[in-house]
Structure formats: structure tokens, C-alpha cells
Amino acid sequence: MGAVLQEWNQWGIAFIVALQARTGGALDVAFTLITGMGDELFYLILLPFLFWCVGKRQGIHIAALLFLSLFINHLLKLVFTNPRPFVVSADVIAKVEATGYSFPSGHAQNAAVIWPALAFMFRRRWVAALAVVCTVLIAISRVYLGVHYPHDIIVGALVGLLIAYVYVRHAPALEERVARWGVGWQLAVVLFLTLVLSFSLTSDDALTLGGSVCGIGLGYVLEQRTLRFQPKANWRSRLLSLGLGMIIVAAVYVGMKAVAPTTGDLVAVALRFVRYMSVGFVAVYVVPWVLVKASLADAPTARAGAAF
Questions:
Q1: Are the beta carbons of 13 and 89 closer than 8 angstroms?
Q2: How far apart are CA 119 and CA 129, in angstroms?
Q3: Preceding peptide of 104 cis, ω within 30°
Q4: Claim to verify: residue 138 and residue 193 sit in the same structural domain
């Protein structure tokens, strides 16, 4: 497979160089903005918006899909260890920052997971059309910007569609089963997933994934038993909820990052995990609690044993 990838790389580099020689200017700006829809910041806005303003079920499922896709993508990149095109050839201009390995494209894979899943959830033609446009443009942007080969985005998109299909097909049955478990088993699953994500990858992203899953999982189990908040029907309350929630989450994230050491020692590693765990917990439990107290969301009586 390594020889095949190297051959594809040479063809991909020639394609990117020819593409970049004929483009630039406004397209650079446009595709930089488009590729931002696959960055961490975009998902840090999308997931809270779904969870606080649309519905917890949609938000938690999209979060689960994103974390699953990120985990699989990191594993695949560690298996193939394919360098990015601007690393292989000085003729390729990297127009945005990108680190790590190239194959398959994480942006293309995540887009092919999240956007089709959103289209399936909401069953609206305009959402389906938006999903197609965003999935295709995000993938193309990675080649245009010189940080991925064409085969990176093709394989990434195919892997993403497969993940989305399998998840959508089997999630309802799994969701129903987990909802019948006791709190001890649910917390055990959260701990198990946290350990797997935190120690099976060899990068800082492992701590981001592990901490996020830990905080979101713990917060969601607690929220379902003590709060069970629901967004209000009017969009004024929902948008106010988003604004207030983002302020709280940003304060936690920025505050904890400010006090964290910049060195790569064990303390810094541990604090990185704690920071993402705290952000996840605050987002799915503390913010909903604040929204209910501020009369920006409703809170029916908690149902014992519920998880989803």
C-alpha cells in the first residue's frame, strides 16, 4: 500500500501545483473560510447550538459521531503515515496551517460524517442540499489549500459516509439498550471510552478526545437524572441560551488554559485533559442548569434510568 500511496502522491502533487498556478486571490479567501467549517472552532459552536437550541438527542448523537470519526481518522493516519503534499514537494504551497499525517483527510471524513447525519436527522430538503454542498466544498478546500492530496479527500469522504451509515443504522437499538442500564454501568462505559481514547493514540488529540468524552458523558448521565432540560419553543430564548452558554463555556476554557503551564510535562498533560473534561461537563450539565434557572429552558421531571 505504501508504494501505491507514493505513486498517488506524485500524481496528486502535480494536480495541486497545476491547480494553484491557475487560482488565487478571492478563491484563497473563500476556500480558507470553507475549510474553517471543518476546524475545531466550528464544531465548538455547532455542538452547543444543537444541544442547547435544537435538541439534546441531536446534539449528543452528532458529538458521538464526531468523536468516533476523529478516533478512526487518527488511527488510520497512524497506520499509513503518509506525509502531506507540502512536506513532500516545495512546489506545493500550504495556504493554511496543517500538522500530522495526510491520509485520509480528517476534514473530508468528518464532513462526510456530520453533514449527512444532520440531513438524516432533520429530513428537510434544504438541509440535505446544504449537507451535499458543505461536504463537497470542505473536501475540495483541503486540496486547493495544498494540505491534502485528491486521494486523501476521496478516501476520507468514503470512510466518513461508511461511519455515518453504520451509526445511523445501529444507533437506535444501542440507544434503547443503554437507556435501560443502571447509572453504574453507564458511568463504567464513560470511563472505558475515556481510557481507550486517552491512551490508544500518540498525540495531544488523544487527551482532547478522552477529556471531552469523559466530561460530556458524566455530565449527560447526571443531566438526564436530575434535570432533563429542553429548549424553549421560541427562538429568542434559544438564541439567548446560545449566547449565555458560549460565554460560560468560553470563560471555563480560556480561564483554565491561561493557568496551564506551557511546558510538555506531566502536569501540563493532566491539565489539558482536565480542561477538556471540564468544558464538556459544563456544556452538557452546568449550562443547561443555568438556562433552566434563568427561565431560558424548560426542565420536566427527571425520569429514573434514562440515559438518552
A1: yes
A2: 8
A3: yes
A4: no
